Amino acid sequence: MTKRVAVMDLGTNTFHLLIAEGDINNYCEIVHITEAVKIGEGGINKGYVVPEAFQRGLNTMQRFHELIEANHITDVRAIATSALRNASNGNDFIKEVESKTGIAIEIIDGEQEAGFIYNGVKLSGCLSAKNSLIMDIGGGSVEFILGNTDKILWKQSFEVGAARLMNQFHHTDPIPPASIEALNLYLEDKLNDLFVAISGIEIDSLVGSSGSFETFAGLIETDKAKSFDLKNIKHYDFEEDELLTITNKLIFSSHKERAGNPGIIPVRIDMIVTASLVTRFIMHTLDIHNVSLCTNSLKEGVLAGMLTGAN
């Protein structure tokens, strides 16, 4: 009988549900939905899930539970990351979800999160024998993984996600030059472990794991009047000039301009600014010119373990 499993990735901005079946190298997606829960909204830097976000999260988990039941899944994993990891009432949320749905949420640390992201990216075939720096920009944290097709050389999670940075630096729209400068200095300080870890190591490319990088790719292709469907791709290579042009445009855009752009999903309308700034900071600071998008991320990494029977 074909194995069918369900994975939930409960992030700071979005909750994802992926139901899939089959072999790890040839699986079929039955359900793949993303809900803009924004569990970190209003409380991310206070370490607290506000009541409205708590309720949105609960409603989404009940909907996910219904889909899991309808598809007769018994093998289920729900993984929570930065926002719930650091929230003082994160355990209250977990208890309430379990009492209402029977779903037991696992809170993972940043190291585990980075490991799952690596497995997801590796599964897509995006890596080579040369060293890549994988970057996953979440709302609460950013994971960096230095590795290749064979192994992880180093990995770490930093609490500098797009929602945290927005909360701290993006108060006026468009974001003023002084705020950009302050944000860059903050990243220089907070990402020191990254600079130490990669010192003397040649990095062939920067691999952006899903999220904002999907928006960058979509906007670039739409500007060229090309149709672009993320469901049909696992990998996309950016032209450096095109990526720098689109991130520059986003950084200096107004909220109204971004909200009026159909290529930016609602949950990313404001966070895409700080995500663009982080991307540019890494490219410039590390002098990386080859950048690609991988549409796989944490949930596919968890899925890989479930379909192979590994943890």
Describe how the helices and strands are arranged.
Layout: E1 4-10, E2 15-23, E3 26-35, H1 51-70, E4 75-80, H2 82-86, H3 90-101, E5 105-107, H4 110-123, E6 132-137, E7 142-147, E8 152-158, H5 162-169, H6 177-190, H7 192-198, E9 205-209, H8 212-223, E10 235-237, H9 240-251, H10 255-259, H11 271-285, E11 291-294, H12 298-308
Parallel strand pairs: 1-4, 4-5, 6-9, 9-11
Antiparallel strand pairs: 1-2, 2-3, 6-7, 7-8, 10-11
Helix pairs in contact: 1-3, 4-12, 5-11, 8-9, 9-11
Describe the structure.
By secondary structure, the chain is an alpha/beta fold. The chain contains 12 helices and 11 strands. It has helices spanning 51-70, 82-86, 90-101, 110-123, 162-169, 177-190, 192-198, 212-223, 240-251, 255-259, 271-285, 298-308; strands at 4-10, 15-23, 26-35, 75-80, 105-107, 132-137, 142-147, 152-158, 205-209, 235-237, 291-294. A 6-stranded mixed β-sheet has the order 8-7-6-9-11-10, sandwiched between helices. A 5-stranded mixed β-sheet has the order 3-2-1-4-5, sandwiched between helices. The longest helix is centred in the N-terminal third of the chain and has 20 residues, at 51-70. The protein starts with a strand and ends with a helix. The model has no long low-confidence stretch (mean pLDDT 94).
| Arithmetic mean pLDDT | 94
Count of alpha/pi helices: 12
- Ends: how far apart? 21 Å
Largest sheet: 6 strands, mixed
* Estimated share of beta-strand residues: 15-25%
Strands across the major sheet, in which order?
A: 8-7-6-9-11-10
SSE pattern:
EEEHEHHEHEEEHHHEHEHHHEH
Helix content: 40-55%
According to DSSP, the number of beta strands is 11
Identify the overall geometry: globular
Roughly how many Å is the radius of gyration? 19 Å
Structural class: alpha/beta
The residue ranges in which pLDDT falls below 50 over 5 or more consecutive positions are none
Oligomer: single chain
